Amino acid sequence: MLQYPQIDPIALQIGPISVHWYGLMYLVGFAQVWLLGRWRIRQGKTDLSVRDLEDLIFYCVLGVVVGGRLGYVLFYKPGDYLANPLEIFFLWQGGMSFHGGLIGVLVVLFLFARKQNKTLLEIGDFIAPLIPLGLAAGRLGNFINGELWGRPTDVPWGMVFPQSGDSLPRHPSQLYELGLEGLALFALVWWFARKPRATGQVSAVFLMGYGVFRFLVEFTREPDAYLGLLTAGLSMGQLLSLPMIIAGLLIFVLSARKSSH
């Protein structure tokens, strides 16, 4: 059994201004998207310019924040926020949804693609390999905050999280997600994208890979107390991941058929 290392969530304090590790992880995530995107541009993986990449990152930041927050409100706590709608804007209280953020990003990618006279999947194929390391940074932020802990376990690396309100050893599910949704997914999508692929297939591998990894990790992650387990004993994260897997599979198959004609 391990004890959670108490980490101060505040990385830097300057007078009344606090810089939190979680916010820094978002900056790290978007910074690596910029660096990897520049590398892919230099390698001729797209005809987008560095200026286009910077515009795309700016729009994606908006998509992540707005979509992630609205997704959390609609998927996880609709009743609470319906009763207190102004709290939707209280971002400092936490509460973001990956699946909502993904929808937000898809919206801005669609609008950006139209502006560039490209398809959504063309833009998606360029940016998909850049995303997983950003997700890894976000999960590291979750671990530093001591949030989103796992279910009770008797594995040797079970960790006691004081924030959970008990002394039970739990799965460090944030680190599982860092490893699977972050590092393993990055290796998979980056490897797959190294060669020319039919339009949409890189995006499809990302969708399927994230969906499968998130679905599996959710078996070790403590369900949200206000939701618990839902249909067929699955968590909300698992139910939201299933459409990603199905969509990725359909895109992959259809793009393969289209390219063979």
UniProtKB/TrEMBL annotation:
Membrane topology: Multi-pass membrane protein
Pathway the protein takes part in: Protein modification; lipoprotein biosynthesis (diacylglyceryl transfer)
Chief location of this protein within or outside the cell: membrane
Record bears the keyword Transmembrane: yes
Binding-site residues, a 1,2-diacyl-sn-glycero-3-phospho-(1'-sn-glycerol): R139
Annotated GO CC locations: plasma membrane
Membrane-crossing segments per the record: 19-36, 56-76, 88-113, 120-140, 175-193, 200-217, 229-254
Keywords: Cell membrane, Lipoprotein, Membrane, Transferase, Transmembrane, Transmembrane helix
Domain of life of the source: Bacteria
One term of GO molecular function: phosphatidylglycerol-prolipoprotein diacylglyceryl transferase activity
Subcellular location: Cell membrane
EC numbers for this chain: 2.5.1.145
GO biological process, one term: lipoprotein biosynthetic process
PANTHER family: PHOSPHATIDYLGLYCEROL--PROLIPOPROTEIN DIACYLGLYCERYL TRANSFERASE, PROLIPOPROTEIN DIACYLGLYCERYL TRANSFERASE
Function: Catalyzes the transfer of the diacylglyceryl group from phosphatidylglycerol to the sulfhydryl group of the N-terminal cysteine of a prolipoprotein, the first step in the formation of mature lipoproteins.
Family that this chain belongs to: Belongs to the Lgt family.
Name of the protein in its database record: Phosphatidylglycerol--prolipoprotein diacylglyceryl transferase
